[in-house]
Specification:
Blueprint (H helix, E strand, L loop, with lengths): L4 H14 L24 H15 L16 H13 L1
Helix pairs in contact: 1-2, 1-3
């Protein structure tokens, strides 16, 4: 299920804040590659981003919910959060 604008904006804000992207955060769109595309997004940053998403959206992310595909693009991450919100 594609993420709605509110979810997309929230995920963008979390990534911008967690990875300290500054103005680059505003350029994130659905096709922006995350893993391998953002040097700031290493394995420790993934853990930090997931914790921030859990807090921001009041969701719970189990370890086996997350895969490389989840962090493939900005769109895939936003869609993942949307799916967690849908329950």
């Amino acid at each position: 299920m594609p993420a709605n604008t509110q979810t997309t904006d929230g995920v963008r804000a979390v990534l911008t804040r967690s990875l300290q992207l500054g103005a680059r955060g505003a350029t994130l769109d659905r096709s922006t590659p995350l893993l391998g595309g953002l040097p700031e997004l290493d394995s420790m940053a993934v853990v930090h981003v997931l914790s921030a998403l859990e807090e921001q959206f009041e969701i719970v992310v189990a370890d086996d919910d997350v895969s490389a595909e989840t962090f493939a693009t900005f769109g895939s991450l936003a869609d993942f959060v949307e799916s967690k919100l849908a329950g």
